[in-house]
Design goal:
This protein is an alpha+beta fold. It folds into two domains: 114 residues, Roll (2,3-Dihydroxybiphenyl 1,2-Dioxygenase, domain 1), CATH 3.10.180; 116 residues, Roll (2,3-Dihydroxybiphenyl 1,2-Dioxygenase, domain 1), CATH 3.10.180.10. 17% of the residues lie in helices and 43% in strands. The strands form two sheets. Strands 2-3-4-1-5-8-7-6 form an eight-stranded mixed sheet, covered by helices on one side. It has an eight-stranded mixed sheet with strand order 10-11-12-9-13-16-15-14, covered by helices on one side. A hairpin with a 5-residue loop joins strand 15 and strand 16. Helix 1 packs antiparallel against helix 4. The chain is globular, with a radius of gyration of 18 Å.
Amino acid sequence: MTNRDGSPIWYELMTEAPDAAQAFYAPVLGWNFGAPPEGLEHDYRVFTAADGEGVGGVMPMPGIPPTWAVYFGVADVDAMATRVTELGGSLHKGPQDIPGVGRFAFVADPQGATFYLMRGDSDAESTAFAPPKAGHCSWNELVTSDQQAARDFYGKLFGWTKAGAMPMGALGEYSFIGHGGETIGAMMTNPEPGAAAFWNFAFTVPDIDRAKAAVEAGGGRLRHGPVELPGDQGDWLIQIDDPQGAKLMLTGKRRGGGA
C-alpha cells in the first residue's frame, strides 16, 4: 500500500465468537461482512463500510480475551520488525507472507501494547482510517504506562510527533499523535497502575444515539457517555464493550437531540 510508514491501514477484531460479533457490529456500525481475499483463512471475515471501502476483519481466536488490533502500514516489514526489537519492543509473530495479501509481523512496543506491521500487495491507499466517514476508524488511542517512552519509541519507528495536548488531572496529559501533518489519535496514561498497555479505537457512526440504542439492543454494554467532544464539530462519544467484552469507542453527531 502507498500509505506512509506508521499509517493505520486495517483494523482487526480477534474473538472466539465471530458469528456473534458479526451479528452485533452490523447494525451498530452499518458494516457489511464478506468472504476474505484469496490467501486468508476461510473463516476470516472482512468488513466494509456502507461506502464499500474495506475497514478491517474479524479473526476467530479461541482462548484469548476478545480484543481489537491495528495494522500500521510500512514499506519494509522485515526492517521495521528488526527496528522494533532494537528500540526495546518485542516480536510475537513473523515476518511472514499471506499469499495474495501481503507481508506482516505482529509486534509489541516496550510497554507491551501490541500491533501489526503490514506491507500490502496492493498499491492502493488504505482508507480504513477516515474520521469523517461512517463505519471508518476516527481515532487511535494508546493507553500506556509511560507516555514519554512511548513517544520516543513510535517517534523513532514511524516519525510520529507530539501534536499538542490537553490536561487530564491526575493522569497528566492527553497527548495528540501527529503523523504527516495529520492528527491520528492520542496517548494517555493508563488509570490502572501495573495494567498492560493497549491500543483503543473509535469508529464513526452517523447518529450516536441510534448507535447507543443498537449497542444495548445487541447485548453490548455502555461504559461511558454519550459525552460531547472538545472542538466545534459537534461530535459525541460513547465507550462500549461488545457482548464478548471487547472494548471500543464510537463517535458521531447527535441527530435527534437524545438525552
